Amino acid sequence: MRMALAISALVAVAGCDLAQQAADDVARGQAKRAVDGVVAERLPGVNVAPVTDCIIEEATAQEILQIAASSTTGATGEVTQMVLQIAQRPAAATCMALNGAALLKT
Prior knowledge:
Layout: H1 2-42, H2 48-58, H3 61-69, H4 77-87, H5 90-98, H6 100-103
């Protein structure tokens, strides 16, 4: 009986983890679209994908949710400022510098 309960608990936790991961993936995808727009506007001619990836990687979960929420309505001034602030964080700046060759559109 205990073994069955333990297995059930593990299955439930795994199910929650999968659902949480799916929700995180959706939010990150939406946030990436919003960040792409900000980057394209602020850095015309730059390949936005590596810049966006660096910004998303350095954003907190709360920031990703806020940015994702703007993906349907367009980036507000507040969201644009948030994206720019995240981009200025040392780790994001390093990430963008390391991907420098990919940042230039050919």
